[in-house]
Amino acid sequence: MSDKPERHEFQAEVRQLLDLMVHSLYSDKDIFLRELISNASDALDKRRFEALTQTELAADELGITLTADAEARTLTIADTGIGMSRDEVVKNIGTIAKSGTKEFLAALGTTAETKRPELIGQFGVGFYSAFMVADRIELVTRRAGTSDPAHAVKWVSTGDGAYTIEDATRDHAGTTITLHLKPADAEHGMRDYATDAVLRDIVKKYSDFVSYPIKLGDDTLNSMKAIWDRPKAEVSEQEYKDFYRHIAHDWTDPLRTIPIRMEGTIEAYALLYIPSKAPFDLYSHEMKRGVQLYVKRVFVMDECKELMPPHLRFVKGVVDAHDLSLNVSREILQKDRQIAVIRKQLVKKVFATLEEVKRDKFEEEYLELWAQFGPVLKEGLAQYEAQDKDKLLELVIAHSTHEGSKLVSLDDYVGRMKEGQDAIYFLNAPSLEAAKKSPLLETFRAKGYEVLLFSDPIDEFWLEQAPKFKDKQLVSIGRGDVALGTEEEREKTKAEIDEKQKELGDLLAALRVSLADDVKEVRLSSRLTTSAACLVADEHDLSPRLQKMLERAGQTMPQTKPVLELNPNHALVGKLKSVFAESPADPRVPLFAKLLLGQAHLADSGQLPDPAGFSEALADVMLRAV
Ligand code: ADP
Ligand code: MG
After folding, report:
1. pLDDT tens digits along 155-193
2. Distance 72 CA to ligand 1 centre (A)
3. By alpha-carbon position, which residue is closest to atom 23 of ligand 1?
4. Which of the residues 90, 484, 529, 572 could staple to 442 if both were Cys, CB 3.0 to 4.6 A apart?
5. Atom number in ligand 1 closest to CA 82
6. Are 61 and 191 part of one and the same domain?
7. pLDDT (tens digit per residue) in 418-435
8. Quick one: which ligand is closest to 92's CA?
9. CATH number of the domain bearing residue 451
């Protein structure tokens, strides 16, 4: 052992990194403190762990102390953690072994010079980030377990490619890091880190839940109250609620609290909440997504969207992944296998909870939950690549023709399906009122088939994808042909329609010509019992509503027209037939055609595409009638 400072060159990679830190243009330099406190907390964890078997290590009170000296412009971060031996200092601080930093350097190589500062924010890069704010760093450390105070080491560097290391004394085990601060420079994101208020602010933001006290003078700056890794039985309902308020900024109580522990190959703790009310910005792009990521109680990022799919974005909470590096970037998160495993677990638990609410508290809670978050859950069904579709379908509830105002699930529906029925029938309409009054329901009602009624805009999108629930196809009653009843009945209906079609062939052809600008086809229908006409979408066409929505969203589409279906048994159609038979050129034929189409539009959406034209035709017909 020598008492003269020994000069060491940094490893080449470290030099590269230091150079970047010293000249850093990264605008949020506060993160250096998060990094140093996290190192201290790790060191304290190690000491606590070793003390379990080596009781002589248990002596000191475990904690972190910050000391700011405004005059000397120094900030000191001291911990009573495990400390380092001389060899450990050389190895840990002088070289780069961590994978996170290696990835950082790899990213550095492929990033344009001007974009490099941002990388620091994404990766953090540990101890070295202190060189963003300090032009000289001294570290004095003594490994726990050595009884001689002279067994301490002092490491000093100005970040210029070399450091010195020498013997030192330290009364207790642990590490003290003294930063000689650069001048504050608000313009470049450098606050005055020798100011108590600034330190308080940063600790609150990044290190509030670190489980050791972080002291500044007599004050403890952090709450230490991370409740996510405490056993459920030890946490009161009130504590869970308070924590929800803290992270969600929501003053209503959450509907459900879901503590999750993962131990084994992956160690992670999570505390998730299902809110009872949707936030006002649930459908805004700017909405704050709900899950925060911590690594061993140190805050890493807000809105970690890698942990929760968009259709569960209303779930709030924290996830603490113990094996992740603090320096994790979004890019890494996206590919990280651990994150994928954790996310899967979280999603599973959330679904289990939603299913439980639906099963056990349908009236009391699920109806409201669905009102708040149903449309968001249905977004998952509309997303081609989304997973969980079967689970989402289990959660879906909708109005139905079965019982006026009650919402029913697909399971309820399937349980009531008629003998021989192989599809789940639904109707999509602009509003529930329009759905209930739709002429498309007539035959279904008459024959006793239940129809689900959807009216959320999002319904157009997911139902359009022809989903299946438990092998049963969901079929729109407003599209293509419908055939109800037994094989025999279907054939009979078809034969009747074919017969009538022949009978009315010339009239239908004339109507097709007269309405060519507005409809794709005019044909007879077996859907109607009391109404004269209805509109449907052709088998493979987009529904008219979806088309309108996509157009409004700025997409240009080939114009598809609806099909006009007429009820062959309706008196109006009969009347039209005889007028046409008498004189195919009768001016009333195109007028009737226009009015029938208008009626069909009104029944479909409550709106007329051409109100003036409809009025005119109506006035004309009235004049002829009197
Ligand atoms: P990381 O924390 O991701 O390993 P850092 O650059 O932050 O990377 O720290 C490098 C290493 O230096 C740590 O892994 C640890 O071994 C050592 N170290 C840093 N600070 C302390 C400390 N306060 N007490 C003990 N060891 C420390
Ligand atoms: Mg670290």
Report:
1. 999 999 899 999 999 999 999 999 999 999 988 889 999
2. 26
3. 40
4. 529
5. 25
6. yes
7. 988 989 999 999 899 989
8. 1
9. 3.40.50.11260
